[in-house]
Amino acid sequence: MNFRKFLIAQSILIAAGSVVFPFYLLLIKNVGDSYSQFGWAYGLFTLTAAFSYPIIGRLGDRFGDKKMLLIYTLGMAAVMLLIPLLYEVWQVYVIQIVMGILGAVQKNTEKAFLARNKDTDNAATRMGNYHLYISLWSGIAIILTGYLIDFLTIASLFYFISFVYIIASFVIVKREKI
């Protein structure tokens, strides 16, 4: 996978995650009875990611960045379909554990891909441009969602973002021009 394709895929992925994050927080609070349950949900996410990183690192070296990003995109597409169906706190906890693993896949793969990039002379410039593009698309997506959500239900937003993750998977698997 070349840098341009990686940048496009990551821009889509980060924007999709940024769009649903505020609404996911509302959903978690509405399912639970207390802020302690909210704390447990996010704690499970973070702890699962932390303990997953070493295993995911080894899997990333074995299977490659492209396959790992596909696992992330397709996994998140499935999770987004399930989120509107959550109504019990234990379901949120299970989803948080799955999202912790998938989040670790995404973050580890992102950093591994950037570390494997052979352009060491312009590494800081490339990294700056990378963060500019993914942050720019994320911000635009969040602003547009603020307008769009007035016409949609929150559940339909999660279904739409599931579709966006599928689009990102097509960007990843698309053959590169020689």
TrEMBL record:
On whether NAD is a keyword of this UniProt record, the answer is: no
Look up keyword Transmembrane and say if it applies: yes
Q: Name one Pfam family in it.
A: MFS_1
Task: Provide the membrane topology annotation.
Answer: Multi-pass membrane protein
| Residues of the Major facilitator superfamily (MFS) profile domain | 1-178
Q: Which InterPro entries match?
A: MFS, MFS_dom, MFS_trans_sf, Sugar_transport-like
The organism's superkingdom is given as Bacteria
Residue ranges annotated as transmembrane are 7-27, 39-56, 68-87, 93-109, 130-149, 155-173
Q: Under the cellular component aspect of Gene Ontology, which terms does the record hold?
A: plasma membrane
Q: Which GO terms describe its molecular function?
A: transmembrane transporter activity
Location comes to:
Cell membrane
Going by the UniProt record, its keywords in alphabetical order are: Membrane, Transmembrane, Transmembrane helix, Transport
Q: What is this protein called?
A: MFS transporter
